[in-house]
Amino acid sequence: MVNPVLLLAVPMGLAFTVPVIERITGRVSRWVPVAAMLFNLVLCVRLIPAVLEGPVIVQLGGFVPPFGINLYVGPLGLFFAGLIALAGLVISVYSLTYIRTGPLARYHMLYILLLVGATGVALTGDLFNLFVFFEILCISSYALVAYNGDRAGLESSVKYLIQGSVGSSMLLVGIGMLYGIFGTLNMADIARSVGMVDQGVLFVPLIFMLGGLGVEAAIFPMNAWLPDAHSSAPSSISAVLSGIAIEVGLYAVARMVFTVFGISDLFLFLAFLGVLTLLIGEMCAFAQSNIKRMLAYSSIGQIGLILFALAVASGVTVTGGLFQFVNHTFSKGLLFLSAGYLIYRSGSMEISSLQGMGRRMPLTSLAFTVGSFSLVGLPPFAGFPGKFLIVRGALERGGTVIVVLTGLVLLCTILEGAYFFRVVQALYFREGISGGSGERAPAAAAVAMILLMMLILALGAYPQFAETFLRSAASDLMGAVEHVGSVL
Amino acid sequence: MRVLLSLAVVAVLAAGIVTVLRDVPFGGNSSRLGSHFVENGREDTGAANIVTSVVLGYRGFDTLGEVTVLFVAAVGLGALLVAGEKNAPRKLEKASMVLTTGSRFLFPLILLFGAYIFIHGHLTPGGGFQGGAIIASGYLLVYLGSRDRRLGKNWAASIETGGGLTFVLLGLAGLTAAGHWFLSNFLPLGVPGQLLSAGIIPIIYVAIGLKVGVELTGVIDSLMGGTE
Fold it and tell me: N or C: which end of chain B has fewer CB within 10 A?
């Protein structure tokens, strides 16, 4: 069997080689992210059978946990690693032609390492190691947000940097406190002894860690950085930040709550927080006239929805939440990628300037439409099964509060539909405005968008394939006891 | 009102932190891990310096991550400064003769000391990050002393790549050699306390030392306005 550590080591090594590759020939470096993510994708597919039989524990350096660091490659970790590799591959193909100016080699290095950081967070079984990979993820995103070098980018990058650094420091303090209490950094080791200490002592570390991770996950009220950062970054980076970075942050929150702390008292509060995040995200998105800001606020809403699904904590809703992770990565990725060229062509980010684009850029407009419909949750697309599972699971679970919250979730879907249909209407049913450049989406971008559209349609048409795997990923997330048993 | 509210939040947090830290015995041997490292570190990793046995032995993977964090930070800073660079190069005043002569005299000694710190990282306090920082301080002095001198870009790129790749490739070699784990120490451990001991640890520290030195020098270089 192949060793899962290659998912981290090989892309990292490739990123390190970029400075020399750039010195030798400037044209090759943009293919390095494509190669790295293709490698990871193949590796993930090859790991599926082994992981379905039982989680793969990798002891790094050959030291037995808790003395050494271990990777925990269960269905959930592999699910995220595969999702990151797939989305990363498609977006790196798009970047081949989309990113044309600026320090290109640095862009590609940071892009690979951002994805390595995300993969590491998803796979590690050690708290401090999680922090290290989290830092790789965050620092490369700060730099990439400001890649264009314009005023808006730099300003939002600094905002993001300040909030992210405060979050990271809180996370580190929380980890330090846990180390003080338990004398270990291994997640499974902490999970094993978490029931034996006074629960009051755990409250402050929990707040620090959830607060710290919550900044990256963009949970209300720690998401003030997101709309600026996601809207002023280059579109390929917005796609990665919305589709991967914040989802990995939310995964880390879920890992802490379900596995490390194992606190079920918190679930109702988190469900409430999720719906609040959803409501605020969708209402702000509805009020936007700038297309990228609208998409950014919609990401906040989606994160709230997934947080709600995970916090209801029944097998069905968690499966639905994971399905929604996939759908959000693909659809929001597709939306940002197509918006990137719509903006190039029209020369403006205002929704009103996109009128009549359906005729001038048929493929890009179609991609935007498919992404919108899927995100809203219309039946033939990938968004439908995810939302359906969440609502069904929440209603099965019952309880007045949960049912009321589910009602609010459905209300938000209507709101979401309203603002997405408004854009689609502008694309197809409004008289076109002339002006802007005559640029069409080049082949690489078209390939990326077509791939994402096909993935969305395939997932919508055959959800059962993904669902089987996601069900075992969901039980991986909720089974703290099995986690402890397999590591120690 | 706002001040009172903030004070209340701070007080609650402080009370919480006190409850957490009250029972943690600082200085004492509270953790199972700590005593394990102290007792077995020498035999397990062959490093006479226990801190190194943790940093590059038990938790070597974290160190690979930290090296990457520094790499990301240096690359990111460079990208921002290239992106933000639009004005003409600034005029630099020439350094005084005292500074120029002093920096020429001290530079090789600083390099030697930095190299000593990372080559002896598995024996005495110090290591790759510390040695690299010292080397970068030597370059900072040269930059101050003779202001038109710059680090060769090709050299810098090769050392950055070489250092990082050495770390990753040694890890991968551990995967295929005995042990079957990434970063397992597959070279003979030797006698702790000798220069050639601790297997792959000194090699990794030399790689990290050079890489960190070049990266921090690159940071200074970018901040001084020397862009590609």
Answer: N
